[in-house]
Amino acid sequence: MDLVPVDGNPGLYRDNISNAIVNTNKNDYESYLNSRKKMNSEREKIDSLEKEINSVKDDVSQIKNLLLKLVENQTINS
Known about the structure:
The structure is a single chain. By secondary structure, the protein is of the alpha+beta class. It has one domain. It is built from one helix and three strands; from the N terminus they run E-E-E-H. Strands 1-2-3 form a three-stranded antiparallel beta sheet. Strand 1 (3-5) and strand 2 form a beta hairpin. The longest helix has 52 residues, at 26-77.
């Protein structure tokens, strides 16, 4: 791989064969991995909370339906 430094960007090199930009700075790479891991963790947490909210909504809906049936039975039997 033939790498040429990118002007004004230390740690960045251009691969002459593929024309890709390559970052050789390990600190930047570690920082990227950490931020990606944090983002994935937050996304999983949000997904979990959404499932929990939907479950609570279903439970409330079932309770509401049961209460409505109780009220109907009370008025019919009165």
